[in-house]
Amino acid sequence: MASERARERDRGRSAGDGPARSVVSNLIWGKMTSSLLSTTLGLGVADVLGDEARTAADVAERCGTLPDPTLRLLRALAALGLLTEEKAGVFRLTPAGALLRNDNPDGMSTLVRIYTDPVLNAAWERLDHSLRTGLPSFDEVFGRDYFTHLKENPDVSAEFNQAMGQSTRFVAESVPDRYDFSRFRTVVDMGGGDGTLLAGILRAVPDLRGVVYDSPEGLAQAPALLEAAGVADRCTLETGDFFTSAPKGGDLYLLKSILHDWNDSQCAAILSGIRRVIPDGGRVLVIDPVLADVVDPATVRLHHYLSDLNMLVNAGGRERTEQDFRALFAGAGFALSAITPLADPSPLSLVEAVPA
């Protein structure tokens, strides 16, 4: 009888049931993976391993943990592709794992720390609130918006600036190869933070001058970075509120990872401020993801859609399609003129607009 019931159950399963279950099974581990990364950073595992292959016992001693649980942690990191197990119980960082080292100038440790921060992720626990109201659940949970949280916590703000710099470094190196900056005189980086993007552009285009425009908190690390990049003599810093004004004198205005932070009316305020000061031959260059009109599983970038929801719950912003950008620009007196995807692995595109 039991075997007959089993055969009946098997007949009721579709041919795709196995793969379908695998999709769901793989997804449920996401939060655990984030916790694993956060703990790995907190213990300094990548820094302990450095350029060496070490035993789990050695790593445990240096991290102040027990050997057996540490072995299990290192095996999980190896399964994720962050380590290789060269022989039983001996581990070495992979190139991906090396990005977690705090001494890696091209690393992602601070970026990972920000995105695995319990404060940032607390808003995700109330995703339902954002879905029902269209408002950021961060404000509901903490009684203030995320950027006020940064302003009230200078250490967190400095880490956030560093994380944004880490995420921008690859873009700063690749953008000059995908866009002709030599036709401009002065580029204004709106919300430019520590100046990572503008420094990369100025290094690539020696005759160009620049302005980094941000809040005092956003600009806190910019002087040292621009000096170290050797472009401080061609770049000025201006503090202000990009919802109310934009600096005069630019013929190119950059908005990297800015518009996706904000809702349409807030973006309209930012773009309208630029429209009031931009010359007729000027350009706006937005650097953000561009969502496909229809999700195609063959080409989809999951990051785009998770980022879209992250903007919703933490800032009230959104990622946008080409048509969304066209409408946004038109409402502020601009016309979309070109979209240029950046080279892999960047998920971003250059979205250019001209005064209409």
Automatic annotation (TrEMBL):
The active site is at 260 (proton acceptor). Residues 1-14 have a biased composition (Basic and acidic residues). Residues 27-100 form the O-methyltransferase dimerisation domain. PROSITE patterns: SAM_OMT_II. SUPFAM superfamilies: S-adenosyl-L-methionine-dependent methyltransferases, Winged helix' DNA-binding domain. Keywords: Methyltransferase, S-adenosyl-L-methionine, Transferase. The keyword Methyltransferase applies. One of its GO terms (molecular function) is protein dimerization activity. Residues 1-20 are annotated as: Disordered. Residues 124-335 form the O-methyltransferase C-terminal domain. GO terms for biological process: methylation. This is Methyltransferase. It comes from Streptomyces caatingaensis.
